[in-house]
């Protein structure tokens, strides 16, 4: 259970400035629904070039809603030059702090603001583009993004980087590269920190486990089923129980039980956690609808 400040709770339960500004001067869209968080920020300037109105729409957790809400309040009345100086630290501090594992929400807010200003200054022609080479393929985080959060927040471990931008929080394959980046930027300071060990399934947060289960199904299970006219849908996760539904030809196949245990369950135990077990959802035999999750 996360420990939230009263101000975070207030902005979550009573978010300010929800929606979209009519005929906005700047629009910033960052994040991805596939990665769990997305934010759209719009603003309108007055005749003096100051932010007269700002609104947001977000898909995410309580911290994502709270940081987006408080950000719209923080930037009202500022010039664009003043607004782009707002850091993710400023956003978190305005809320009285955030759980370390939720600091990436404040970074998303800062990125959305910068994207909206960039959009305005380009005359509405330019959308936010992430610079650099992708290091974390699970969450699509680039080396430039990782370098920035390390420098701006004085991060010294892989776990801290994951908290601030999610990089390293999925399969863990990029953690070695992140460690090298930390050492390059922080030098001896990084070496003085405890060595970060690769994440094991037992240490995954619920969000990380969900992401890794979905990725394993997408990459290790679904292609084989599609080759035979079938498909699979992740329905729910209850503790270590993964509930799936077979679609297409798989839904009426007599070997579905075998596929569930010998293919799906085996792959999830191999790539996520040995404690996982799979159950078939009751509607798997219903062929009236087929939902494919990429």
Provide tags for this entry.
GMP Synthetase, Chain A, domain 3; three-stranded antiparallel sheet; 3 domains; three-stranded mixed sheet; disordered C terminus; 8 strands; alpha+beta; Sufe protein. Chain: A; single chain; Arc Repressor Mutant, subunit A
Please summarize what this structure is.
This protein is α+β, with helices and mostly antiparallel strands and 294 residues long. 42% of the residues lie in helices and 17% in strands.
What would your notes on this structure say?
- This protein has three domains: 6-121, Alpha-Beta Complex (Sufe protein. Chain: A), CATH 3.90.1010.10; 134-199, Arc Repressor Mutant, subunit A; 206-285, GMP Synthetase, Chain A, domain 3 (2-Layer Sandwich).
- Helix 2 (62-75) crosses helix 5 and helix 10 (206-226) packs across helix 11 (256-271).
- The strands form three sheets. It has a three-stranded antiparallel β-sheet.
- The chain has helices at 6-13, 62-75, 80-83, 88-94, 103-121, 143-153, 158-165, 175-186, 188-191, 206-226, 256-271, and strands spanning 26-32, 37-45, 51-59, 134-136, 141-142, 230-238, 241-248, 277-280.
- The protein has 294 residues and is of the alpha+beta class.
- Strand 4 and strand 5 (141-142) form a beta hairpin.
Helical content stands at 40-55%
The CATH class of the largest domain, by name, is Alpha Beta
CA-atom Rg in angstroms: 22 Å
User: At the third CATH level, what is the topology name of the largest domain?
Assistant: Sufe protein. Chain: A
Terminal Cα span: 30 Å
- Return the string of H and E elements: HEEEHHHHEEHHHHHEEHE
| Class from secondary-structure proportions | alpha+beta
Share of β-strand residues: 15-25%
Which spans of ≥5 residues are poorly predicted at pLDDT below 50? 193-202, 284-294
* Overall spatial form: globular
Q: How many domains comprise the coordinates?
A: 3
Largest sheet: 3 strands, antiparallel
* Overall mean confidence score, pLDDT: 84
Strand order within the widest beta sheet: 1-2-3
What is the count of β-strands?
8
Number of helices: 11
